[in-house]
Write a structure and sequence with these properties.
Blueprint: E1 25-30, E2 37-39, E3 42-44, E4 50-51, E5 54-59
Antiparallel strand pairs: 1-5, 2-3, 4-5
Length: 60
């Protein structure tokens, strides 16, 4: 995507969203302590990735 933002939104409690794009995708998740992430349909742990409750990772 060349640094373009593919998805940006503040989600409400119990709201979900799906995002697709061509890897690699740089992902930033706020409120990582209250967020569940699935990558290719499988749970992806944000534990250990978060600093100040913001997780940053790449989906390859």
């Amino acid at each position: 995507m060349g640094g373009n933002v593919v998805f940006q939104k503040t989600l409400a409690a119990d709201e979900s969203a799906s995002v697709s794009g061509t890897p690699p995708l740089a992902v930033v998740v706020g409120r990582s302590d209250a967020t569940e992430v699935l990558v290719r349909g499988k749970p992806f742990s944000l534990e250990g990735l978060a600093r100040e409750n913001v997780a940053r990772f790449e989906v390859k």
